[in-house]
Each structure stands twice: as C-alpha cells, then as structure tokens.
Hints:
Elements lengths: L5 E10 L2 E10 L2 E6 L11 E4 L4 E4 L1 E6 L12 H10 L2 E6 L10 H11 L6 E4 L1 E2 L5 H5 L9 E4 L12 H10 L4 E4 L3 H15 L8 H4 L2 H18 L3 E3 L5 H4 L9 E6 H5 L5 H4 L12 H10 L7 E3 L27 H10 L5 H16 L15 E10 L18 E11 L2 E4 L18
Parallel strand pairs: 1-4, 1-5, 6-7, 7-8, 9-10, 10-11, 11-12, 12-13, 13-14
Antiparallel strand pairs: 1-2, 2-3, 5-15, 15-16, 16-17
Amino acid sequence: MTEGRFTIKNATIINEGRRYQASVSINDGRIAEIKCQPHSEDCNDELVFDATGMFLLPGVIDGHVHMREPGLTHKATMESETRAAARGGVTTVFDMPNVVPQTTTLKLLQERYALAEHRCHANYGFYLGATNDNIEEIKQLDATICPGVKLFMGSSTGGMLVDKEASLRQIFRSSPSLVMTHCEDTARINANMAEIKKQYGEDPDIRFHPIIRDHEACYQSTELAVRLAKEEGARLHVAHITTAQELELFEPNDDCVTAEVCVPHLVFTDKDYETLGTRIKCNPAIKTTVDRDALRKALTDGRIRTISTDHAPHLLSEKEGGCLKAMSGIPMVQFSLPLMLGLTTDGVLSIERLVELMCHNPAHLYGIKKRGFIREGYWADLTLVRQKSWKVTKDCIESRCGWSPLEERSLNWQVEKTWVNGNLAWDGVSVSQQPQGQRVYFDS
C-alpha cells in the first residue's frame, strides 16, 4: 500500500552528477513530477514533507548483503535486516546464496523469493550460487529474475568452493547473467594459517588475520578471475576488493570487468584490530592504511564501480575467539550511507560521485528496471539526509544481532527519512511496521 500522492518540497537533489533545488511529487509509488520552481502551498497533495536544508538522494542499492534466512535466523532475518537497511537509507538489497539450504538450484531460488514476499522493508533480489556441479542450473537461469551468479573462488565452506580452472571456465562461459566472485586463494590461506598456528597456537590472535588472508591470496585469485572472464567473454564483478595491488587489474570505466569495494575496507585498517578485535573480522581481511587509501582513491578514478557493505551479521558470542574460531562478518547496512557521506565531508569524494557509486552504477551494472535515479516515472525509492552529528548506540541498532563495531562512534550525517516504492519506510523515529519492499526484476 502506497502513501498516495505527496510532495517532498524544497530539497537539494543529488542526481546524475547534478545538484539542484527542486520539489518532487510522488503518486502511487512512483515519481510523478520534479519541479525546479518553488513549491506551491495551494497544491492538492495530501501530504507535504519540507526538505529545506536537506539532500534528497536516490535510495541506496546494496548489491552484497547476507540476511541469513533461511536456516540462520537466530542471528538475522529478511525482516530485521531490511529494517536496518531502510533506517540507513538503503532501499534495495541483493542477498547472497550461502544460507541453509544454499541457494544453488532454480527451485531453491524461487523458494527464497516466495519466502521474502511481504516480509522485506527494502526491495530485494537473490543470487544463484555456483558449485562444482550445478552448471545446468546456471545455464537455465532466467537473467531477468536474478542479479547474478555468486561464485566463491576461495574461502568458502559447505560445498560452494569452486577453484578448479576447468569448472571456473565453464561457469564464466555459460552464465547468462553477471558473475560476482569472492576472490581469495584457498591454498595460500591454508598454508599461511598452518605456519601461523605453528608459532602462535591453534587459534591465533586476530592481529594475524590480514597476514593469513594476505595480499597475495587476494591478488592471485582476482588475477585468475579477471583473466578467465576476459578469455571466456563473461561479465565479471569482483566483490570486496581489499588491496592496492588488485586495483591494477581493472581498467577505468570498463563495463565487462568491474570491481566492488565494501564499506569496512574504506573505513577501517589493520590498526583497528587492536581496539575492535574480532568485531571487524571479515573475509577478505581488512588490511593496511596504504590499501585503504588506495581504495579511496579508486572511488574517483573509475576503477571501482560500486560500493556495497557485505553486511554479515553474527551474534557477538559467535565473534569470540581469534583467527580460527571467531566468525567472519560485520553488520553494516544500517550505517553505510552515513559513513560514506562522512567521506564526502572529509574530501575523499563528492556527494555526486557517492550517488553514482551507491545508486546509479548498481542500477546500470545489474540492469535494474526503474530504480537508482530520481527520474519521472521511476519508483520512488528515495532517502533524505542532512549534516547532523549523532552517536551510534546499541539501542538504535535494527539488525537482529544487536551490535555494531561503530558503537559510541560519532557520525556527522544522518538519514532523516527513507521512502521505498513511495512508502515512508523510515520516518526519522521508527521503521514502518508494514514491509513495503518489492521483488526486483532485471534487464536480460
């Protein structure tokens, strides 16, 4: 159910490289009109939101999240994680296949879509997972119903690791959709782990995480993915780039071989393990300040195509231990937009470029229909933000896991409101009780 007709007046719109004052009228879930002249107070709109002094952005599209449902709902659900997304200005999420059971067949893919119906506060899509033996499922995939095929080329458990070149070539050659890869060389990681365990025991301290999952493990796997994708003519999107060296493998503005960077690798460095410990343990590992700064630079030179989160909630009890025992993953979707807006304040990138990386480029990359832009006729997926200092506290966290590595950290941008399909999903105080997210469809 939509809000009917309403207007967001006097907003500073950031869209398609421009910044301008306008009012946006929404009707039946879509953007009906964008007016650059002053808003008329005697209009017939049922509801008017005054956005004076605020920025109106397209809703963020996060192409890399883990909602943990089905099978892992003790730590997250579709409802709880999309509630977190909506509060953070994220209006569309694409969920990974490593749930229980893993989404590696077309039947299971359709079952996940059925499960999500009427339960998500943000729009949603689900990846099909690749394995060593599901090539026939991949070949039969309808590219209009799925954002892509997720391929774990390393660092995977539960039967989703695909690291034989013949199998990789077949997947790249046969996929009718974009292939998103997790690139780490498992053999190197295992060798590094064995060596560190000899010196420091069975569960080495978290400070060794980026040494075990080191630069070379990432580079070797990413180089292989890029080479095979080019040889087989695949569309490749490499997830969560973490090293300066990997960036050398990507050409600016290449539409066939693209790279994603995730928020934790833009915000944290290996120095933060000392204070945050396993709360920032993720795969691939957060690395050096040099790597973080190189990733930040690549945001503006065309080598990074999208910013996502790899939002991956775990219970704090599951984060106990060191490199071996503590689970890898960080809950981040609620705070990605304020954090990235903070980088605009710091001069790392412009707010216009941020909107390209978090809204426009994902819409282009995945072929999302009628989303990702503030255009007449498009779905009214919108977020209203402003500069305002606030502190992240435990009681504001929407994710079921109930914690964040950002607790007690002050942020200087705040999400004021979020609309999903023309519905006010986050009003600045609470998330709507009624989920209004829709299934996303794609251009083939």
